[in-house]
Design a protein that fits this description.
alpha/beta, 7 strands, 8 helices
């Protein structure tokens, strides 16, 4: 009886930013739980590669290259999903990025790490850089929810999972755009959960801790320093984040909405 509540057989999920890292881990976990998955990322080769991993699990998979910060791409993504599968049960807004490591204004006497190799880090965050980090971390979720919402509300059923960061509660020095945009996705989650609760659409948020992605893998010394500050003294596996996504996508979480579920190895305790 209990395992049945966590099954996703017959469910249709969209996962953004699904080509690697956390997004790929979530997509694979949803497929392992039985869901058919629509994968989207900006690079066609990457999303095709991820689709092959999901297809091996015996699930139907639709790779859709798209930039989900653009309304027209989001509309096309939803249209293709509905045309192929007929409905959308789960939306995972995973796409995101750290933007640039720059302060709001230049800080006298402060030299950020890496400025010797990249002097641009000494400059203030630009208008375009500020807009870009908000587009990736917040506007993408806004656009996807706006496009998928009418379908879920009409069916009186749906699961929306946004992805945030511990930085949304605990700011990171010199990354004001990232921290602020992640705090914004937290409140977006809570506000949307309140709007959609009466229609039986759950909106929750996952806050992953340190997961080694392709970029971090190239800087093992930095990863080692970061791990040394974590209470659990290790990074998270993408699968661990995926398992939490399975719970939030399943019937087991039907009475949970508007929550930020952190899985960060104690990072916010520091």
């Amino acid at each position: 009886m209990l395992p049945h509540k966590f099954e996703l057989h017959g469910k249709i999920a969209i996962v953004t930013g699904a080509s690697r890292g956390i997004g790929r881990g979530i997509a694979v976990s949803l497929a392992e739980a039985g869901a058919d998955v629509v994968l989207t990322a900006r690079t066609e080769a990457d999303v095709q590669d991820a689709a092959e991993e999901v297809a091996v699990l015996g699930r139907r998979v639709l790779p859709v290259p798209a930039d989900v910060t653009k309304p027209q791409d989001v509309a096309s993504l939803v249209e293709r999903t509905l045309s192929e599968f007929g409905r959308i049960d789960i939306l995972v807004n995973n796409v995101g990025g750290g933007g640039v490591s720059k302060p709001l204004i230049p800080l006298p006497g402060y030299t950020p790490r890496g400025a010797e190799a990249d002097p641009s880090l000494l400059t203030a965050i630009s208008d375009d850089e500020w807009r870009r980090v908000f587009d990736v971390n917040l506007t993408s979720a806004f656009l996807c929810c706006r496009a998928v919402g009418p379908h879920m509300i009409e069916r009186r059923k749906g699961k929306v999972i946004n992805v945030t960061s511990p930085s949304g509660e605990r700011s990171v020095r010199n990354r004001i755009g990232y921290s602020t945009s992640k705090a914004a996705i937290n409140m977006f989650t809570k506000a949307l959960a309140q709007e959609w609760a009466r229609y039986n659409v759950n909106v929750n948020c996952i806050g992953p801790g340190l997961v080694v992605n392709r970029d971090l893998a190239e800087t093992p010394e930095l990863v080692e320093r970061m791990v040394a500050t974590l209470p659990m003294r290790r990074t998270a596996a993408a699968e661990e984040i995926g398992l939490l996504a399975v719970y939030l996508a399943s019937d087991a979480s039907d009475f949970m909405t508007g929550e930020i579920a952190y899985i960060d190895g104690g990072q916010r305790l520091i």
